[in-house]
Amino acid sequence: MTPWPWPIVLNAEVIACAECEAYRDWVIVSTRDQVWLRCRAGHLQHEPRVDTAWFNRHSGPTDATHATFEDCLRHLGH
Fold first, then answer.
1. How many angstroms separate the CA atoms of 64 and 4, rounded?
2. N or C: fewer beta carbons within 10 Å in the chain?
3. What whole-number distance in Å separates Cα of residue 38 and Cα of residue 30?
4. Dmax of the chain from CA atoms?
């Protein structure tokens, strides 16, 4: 997981949450060769246009290990 406070722009399109239309302040989750976007409201959506290689290029080094998904979200301020 990595926080992403900026808009995500793919092919000149700003990605927005399918449920609440938020377009920034994401947590990007990479798992099992898929990338998921989680908005501040907690909606999670698969983003097939972003791959694991993109995630690895843009995420920073790991700064902590957490026992649960929720613990990690709290660590990231979500």
1. 17
2. C
3. 11
4. 37
